[in-house]
Amino acid sequence: MRRRDPLFELTPREKEIFFLITQQGLLYVDIATLLGISYKTVKHHACQILAKLEIPSRLELAVWAWRNGIVR
What we know:
Layout: H1 12-22, H2 28-35, H3 39-53, H4 58-67
């Protein structure tokens, strides 16, 4: 049986923000500028990501992504 992709529950925008946080270490304000959306929208998406993955912080999200081989 194949293991389910842990990012399956994320929307395309959440995945985009997930990778900007974990691969590039960008701050919410930088992500907002890059994507042309508001800081508040980025923060909302980030909170959704953390909730869906049951991870309490951005730092732990980056560590989780590294440990699971999602980012290097």
